[in-house]
Structure prediction request, 118 residues.
Amino acid sequence: MQAKILVVDDEPLARRNISIFLRENGYQTVEARDGKEALAVLQNEKVDLVITDIRMPQLNGLLLRDIIASTRPGTPTLLVTAYYGDLVKARLDPDAFVLKPIVLEELLERTQKLLARA
Prediction:
């Protein structure tokens, strides 16, 4: 069974490129423009992993990660950011984030690791 991944980013091109890359590597994807839209998607769909940008309007990726952890325990979240300081504040597992500009092979490796742990 294919894993389903929710890709959340307020930048349409980044969101689309990540989704296309993941589909080319055998995953199903669903997309959301921001954290609020992601929560709406999560009410209706079961996903195996959430990949989210940190800095977004409405609801940022760190808050989204915390909500997912409390409402859907066991669903891993991979954070994406261009701001290293965001990662320092979040005290993340090294496999739980990817820096922008995204190296797609690194994104795939982290995706596979997080899904294997779930």
Notes: The beta strands are 4-8, 28-32, 49-53, 77-81, 97-99.
